[in-house]
Description:
Helix content: 55-70%
Order of helices and strands: HHEEHHHHHHHHHHHH
Number of helices: 14
Strand order of the largest sheet: 1-2
Structural class: mainly alpha
Distance between the termini: 95 Å
Amino acid sequence: MTEIQEEDDKFLSKEIKIPENNEKKGLWRNLTAFWILGLCNNFGYVVMLTAAHDIIHDLSAGENGPQTDPDFKRECNKLSAGVILLADIFPALCVKLVAPFLPFYIYFQMTICVLLSVGSFILVAYAEAVWIAIIGVILTSISAGLGEVTLLSYTSRFNKNSVSTWSSGTGGAGIFGSLSYSAMTQAGLSTKSTLLIMTFVPILEAVVFIFLLEHPKNAENCEKIPLQKSKNDPDSKETEAEKNLVTFFDKLRYIPSLFKYIIPLLLGNICDNLINQAFSELIYFNNIFLDQKAQYRWYQVTYQIGVFISRSSVNVFKVRLLWLMAVLQGINVVLFSLEAVFWFIPSIWIVFAFILWEGLLGGSAYVNTFYRISEEIPPANRVFAISITAFSKTAGIALAGWLAMPTHNAICKVPTPNRLN
């Protein structure tokens, strides 16, 4: 009997190991897929922001061209880069406002995202007027907004680390998007050629989504099918709250319970996008190795490096105080606004250091917010919680875009400080 029992144990252990190995292989495959999807989804958004100064500068003519007052010696585009930010985010805001209350059709939504993204690169590349380029940027915005709310919600059907790999991928988009655009244009490629080359990114997104990601059964119905829960999962006991989000009004009543995630993320995004689109464009140094347009592009690269580092670090370093990051970002707003007006920082390298710090805060706020949601919100409510919190992030960016335009114009009327005289 002992020998038979030993043989049975060996057989059972073999039976258990096979699915475990397959599960690990599938886990890494899906985590890799979400990283690449995060990169591809946000790539166009980042490129358009990095190219914002170039798009306005190159396509503007006459009264919309760069303005240099002989008394002030401060060179400004009459249109702020905040115009591109607004076009790059407001349509996404509308998408994210509506999407949480609509049925979840993952394949249809991803098809729309890919087609819009390809179209946006082509339209901006061939634009001959600012308003045409802005339409192209709007297509990018719709694609990125729909993609974020769709894929972030879709992570609720996978291992919780899918949120962190998605976040890391979106941070990677910041680096690859801003760095590739800056490097290509610095090497002499035109904005048009650079944007046309970048159409391969949404095509890569489609390939990864179709062939690399292992889709669960009933993927289209992920809001209605409860997630499989482990015995050790603290959410394994179904609560009444998990059954509540059925109607539109149920979802509205649930939103106040998410304010601890929504409000800090909203305020933080207002701050860092106001810095990037209203102030950094007006912080430049004469007679150095970079001209004004190149300085703006490399500010964006530096910011995105900080975002990538912090969005990739949640499994190593978690921040529970979401409000603290919003407060620190508010301090950065004060610092950069004063620098944009008075130019008191003596070296561009110090500006780069502060921008890196700003990016670290912005990326950390994003990934820690959504990681906490994946840990703290009951599984049946996560799709809605993630969607509505993603909307608050976009709302903060849109508000920053509105504020950036009058702020930019006001600073342009201030006499140039001594540093550049």
